[in-house]
Design goal:
heterodimer, A: 2 domains, 6-stranded mixed beta barrel, 13 helices, 17% strand, B: alpha/beta, Rossmann fold, 4-stranded antiparallel β-sheet, 7 helices, globular, disordered N terminus
Chain lengths: 397, 243
């Protein structure tokens, strides 16, 4: 019966559904964009390494203007060794320094980030060597001028040739390429992870930068449950080693990536909620559209209601007839809306280059919502119809 | 045609006592019906006449359980129905009264068959049985071949026959016809009145509202309503013998 009535007013039914279609579609598409942003952030944080603590030098506070974070020179390679030796539940410790240098091969040159690292860096960053080998402890001890290069650097300096075994010049010093990293592509933060030259930490400190400190120490904790404990242990150990007593400020920072991740998650959840609620408003507007059209429909069909009542339809019979109609609008509109929303989200991913993630929750919620809206906004018109006086309704022209 | 069992006692199908219907018009109270006493026996064919404004329509609405009297008693089939609730009245209409209207009042979007079956939906009868019964009564009015036609594909006379089939489909005690020939030409009028006389012949109680004397003479009893009271009552008690 409901279908007959809706089918008889095809165009009007479709236009009524449009509100719901747009509402549901927008909710699904917007939430999928929000979820996409969230998964991007999570991935990029995870790609920095899981269960990671980063120890960096604090800012200088000697006299007047303070330096930037990391400007102190108090963090040493020995600190990293001490952390490795004395603190439990740690998988890897990787101190590193970095600088930006011109890298040259023959007549090709390229400016890139040069990282001075220890062999553990490979595990902590989950790098893979495509050909050749990574830096060894032997290289570290001998301060060898060897380099492992990323795919972008290799392409710019060597083209399609195999760079392993060839010589390059970094800051006018000759380095032998011992390995080529497997391409990791762009990080989700938009950084090219292949644009890098990796050399032994000791070589970088003494032969390139002429420094004795390290710029950061990455610590990989064996399990997420030890994060807080390890962080605390590191702080105590470093205060001891740096002879910081009492209330004096630390000359280092231990940053916890999980807290970063939590903050980022909170932010992206807010974004998702914002987008979702904007879309949700259009869903409610769609519901009001249903109410409008059903009101018109009741007025237009006053005579039909009169006939049905004269033939014995009770209050509930008429109420149900109109309620079912508006729920059917909600259901069909909801289903089409889901299809539109998913399509839209794929289109955004395809054309806009966004990452979108379609999850079940917004689909179920917005569908339930659209059916609920059909029901809720159908009640008023349905009651109006069911309360009509049969005599008045029969007289209606 | 499946016959309804006619109760042997000549009891009254309708029994009105002191029915009044009052309307508030500003400061004044106006009585549309001012004390009606009326008995209609089973199998009677009564014509209700009167000029417009006489209270004829109000009486028709009360008899058809579409409206409640302000005071008085209305026994339908021995059951007091004057003060039932809306839903109880709806149920009473569905079970006991079949309506035929001047402007047919068919639903234009559904077929004749579905129109005829409509009262059966509200009687809670299953789809297959509904079709069967609706088909049977369409056949009774000679329109079995028009079952799938939409009302707007039918002539006025045919539409009124569909409406009569619909009035019959739930086998009510009373057929209420309100100016059933008012919108029809002479030939169709003839056909429709023939059908009513045949129905009367099979023992149905029929109440016909009309303002045309030549239509009213088809009935056995003529009632004249004027200023809210019945002023003339002719041919009372004539009931065709039911074989």
């Amino acid at each position: 019966m409901a279908f007959t009535a809706l089918y008889a007013n095809k165009l009007r039914s479709l236009l009524t559904m449009l509100g719901i279609i747009i509402g549901v579609g927008a909710v699904i598409a917007m939430v999928s964009v929000g979820m996409g942003v969230r998964s991007n952030v999570q991935e990029s944080i995870a790609s920095l390494g899981s269960n990671m603590l980063i120890v960096s030098p604090g800012s200088s506070n000697r006299g007047g203007p303070r330096g930037a974070a990391g400007s102190m020179q108090t963090l040493k390679y020995d600190d990293a060794k001490a952390i490795q030796a004395k603190i439990k539940n740690i998988d890897f410790v990787s101190p590193s320094v970095s600088g930006s240098y011109q890298v040259v091969n023959g007549n090709q040159n390229w400016n890139t980030s040069v990282q001075g690292v220890t062999p553990e860096y490979m595990d902590i960053k989950s790098l893979t060597v495509e050909s050749g080998s990574f830096i060894t402890n032997d290289n570290m001890n001998k301060r060898d001028r060897v380099a492992v290069i990323g795919a972008t650097v290799a392409e710019n300096l060597f083209g399609a040739e195999n760079p392993v075994g060839r010589n390059i010049r970094v800051n006018n010093q000759p380095f032998r390429v011992i390995g080529l990293l497997e391409s990791k592509g762009q990080s989700s933060m938009g950084q090219d992870q292949d644009d890098v030259v990796i050399i032994p930490l000791t070589t970088a400190q003494e032969r390139m930068l002429g420094i004795t400190y390290v710029q950061s120490v990455s610590v990989q904790v064996s399990d997420a449950m030890y994060m807080d404990q390890v962080q605390n242990d590191i702080e105590v150990l470093l205060r001891q080693r740096h002879r910081i007593i009492g209330d004096n400020e630390d000359d280092f920072h231990v940053r916890n990536l999980t807290s970063l991740m939590e903050t980022m998650n909170q932010t992206t959840t807010m974004i998702t909620l914002l987008l979702g609620s904007v879309a949700g408003i259009s869903l409610i507007v769609g519901g009001i559209g249903i109410m409008n059209i059903m009101m018109v429909s009741v007025t237009e069909r006053t005579r039909e209601i009169g006939i049905r009542k004269a033939l014995g339809a009770t209050f509930n019979n008429i109420m149900m007839q109109f309620l079912i109609e508006s729920v059917v609008i909600g259901v069909i509109g909801g289903i089409i809306g889901i299809a539109v929303g998913c399509g839209l989200s794929y289109a955004i991913a395809g054309v806009g280059g966004f990452t979108t993630v379609i999850t079940l929750a917004p689909i179920l919620i917005s569908f339930t919502f659209s059916v609920g809206i059909g029901l809720l906004f159908g009640i008023l018109p349905a009651r109006k119809a069911a309360r009509l006086d049969p005599i008045e309704a029969l007289r209606y022209e | 045609m499946k016959e309804k069992k006619i109760k042997s006692s000549a009891e009254h199908v309708i029994r009105l006592r002191g029915i009044k219907k009052l309307y508030q018009m500003g400061q004044q109270q106006v009585a549309a019906l001012d004390g009606i006493d009326l008995d209609i026996k089973r199998g009677e064919f009564a014509a209700l006449m009167g000029p417009s404004g006489s209270g004829k329509s109000t009486l028709m609405n009360i008899l058809g359980c579409l409206d409640r009297p302000t005071c008085g008693s209305y026994e339908l089939e021995g059951r007091e129905v004057a003060h039932l609730s809306d839903d109880e009245l709806a149920l009473t209409r569905n079970r006991h009264i079949g309506f035929v209207f001047q402007n047919f009042n068919l639903l234009s979007r559904i077929s004749s068959l579905d129109n005829v079956a409509l009262p059966l939906i509200y009687a809670g009868i299953g789809a297959r049985e509904r079709r069967k019964r609706a088909m049977h009564f369409l056949d009774t009015v000679g329109l079995a071949d028009r079952a799938e036609h939409m009302p707007n594909e039918l002539s006025g006379g045919q539409r009124q026959r569909v409406a009569i089939a619909r009035a019959l489909v739930n086998e009510p005690e009373i057929i209420m016809a309100d100016e059933p020939t008012g919108n029809l030409d002479t030939k169709s009028t003839r056909e429709i009145m023939d059908i009513f006389q045949k129905l009367h012949g099979t023992g149905r109680t029929i109440i016909l509202v009309t303002h045309e004397p030549e239509i009213a003479v088809c009935a056995n009893r003529q009632l004249l309503v004027r200023d809210g009271v019945i002023t003339r009552d002719e041919g009372k008690g004539v009931v065709l013998d039911v074989v």
